[in-house]
Amino acid sequence: MDVYHGMGTFPGIAIGKIQYYRGYDQNIRKYTITDTEKELVRFQKARKKAIEELQEWNRKEQAELGRGPRQMETYIQLLENSSFIRAIESMVVSEKVNVSYAIATTKDELSTTFAKLDDAYVKSRVESIRYLSERLIGILDSISKDRIQGEDPVILVSRELSPAHVVEMDQKKLLAIVTKQGSPISHTSILAKTINIPVLIGVSVDAEWDGCTGIVDGYNGTLYVEPDEDTLRVYRDKQQRDQKKQAELLKLRDAKDVTKDGTKVELLANIANLEDLDSVLSNGASGIGLLRSEFQYLGRENYPREGELYRVYRQVAQTMGDRKVVIRTVDLGADKQASYMDLPQELNPAMGNRGIRVCLDRKKMFRAQIRAIYRASIYGNLSIMYPMITSMREVEEIWKIVSEVKESLSQREIPYKDIPNGIMVETPAAAMIIPELAQKADFISLGTNDLTQYVLAMDAQNPQLEKKFDRHHPAVLRMMEMVIKATHEAGKKVLVCGELAAEKAMIPYFLKLNVDALSMAPACILPARKAVRNLDLTKM
Q1: Is 473 assigned a catalytic role?
Q2: Model pTM score
Q3: Residues 410-429: pLDDT tens digits?
């Protein structure tokens, strides 16, 4: 038995087989082949299958949206006859190497050659080649699209996972996640919390663990590889106790969120996609305080269209009924990258072009999302909020776009509700002009994760700063208090979303400040409800 220590970012016990995720390219092994004709036939069959998959995708998109993705023709042309295909075939014949290695090498050479060219067409072509390379290698090497092999759930181990990787996976097959890179408030960690699985970061992972039995202890940040029988027995007992505690908490699913002294608060859920709705309802959340809409934009090859967005928002609204649903407009940038958007590389992406800045740069994308939300509003209790605000100019520009969208819908006699529009306060700039922002907005959402890193001038995802990153720093607390007080003075409600909202030690702090709602991962709702119901603020 080997024992490895890291940091647990979400509690729980997981026992199962380890799958080491390398990524497609890292799985490639170079080997010499003797029958080049046979290898080329394999390549031809893989190309044919890829084309058939793309054509099927195209048919589905046309059936749902009236037309297929614009780059479909480019993909098929590249697969049927192009210099990319000829270069792969040439390398197989001349160097007598396996075709998967030839694909990966050709892709890397083209990417390196054209990396410095500032030409939109060339960039688009390279992105198409990257996408097709991964698809072809997956077919040739029988790697499933969701990167999880077999039917049984696994402990997924990797050096690094992006939010897009997690989104693409079948989340029902995940028992736990263990990575070398990451931070407690990275979006990958946050997404894992949403699906209620333990997460470890900072573990020196090893590909040799693939297929081994593992135990993940999210409480103390420990991974056991090939545990002995005594350790297995101890952790099976712990897992059973965890399950019993969860069963006790489930008795609070329909209980009110009110303290012993009568102080009320809404406990809302943070979610990323439709798969999370069951967790919201099963944990008895009062509603959804943060729907991270950017995950509809990740793990795909093109922008989601308005009709696709509308159908998702409609389903969320219908499922939640009268319960509140707050949709955050797309917050891309930093560690959430969509390759088809061609967002430039930045030296400091956490301080770069992200959130509302990207949306206001790409107004067509932004309008499509706002239209989709307003169209879906008639089916439930929806609200919108806008991330990364820093100025009144941004707010005025947003309000103008919203007004234009509503006018356009009215002219076309498309029904919609006049729903609340809120502002996220997660930058010091927004906090300092909160009196003005609170007058303009229908509500304020206090985003504690980003606000903390910007107040401290520390990258929240930099592992070297983890021990120095003080989430309870007096400056952070004072700034939050200032925002809450000014929002209430303006007669508006304030909800807190971020990791601090679920901290048991912070719940009485927020309730004494009279916050109206706390929004957190669905799995945190019931423990928070228990904490709220046990509080008596008159004795604190």
Answers
A1: no
A2: 0.66
A3: 999 999 999 999 999 999 99
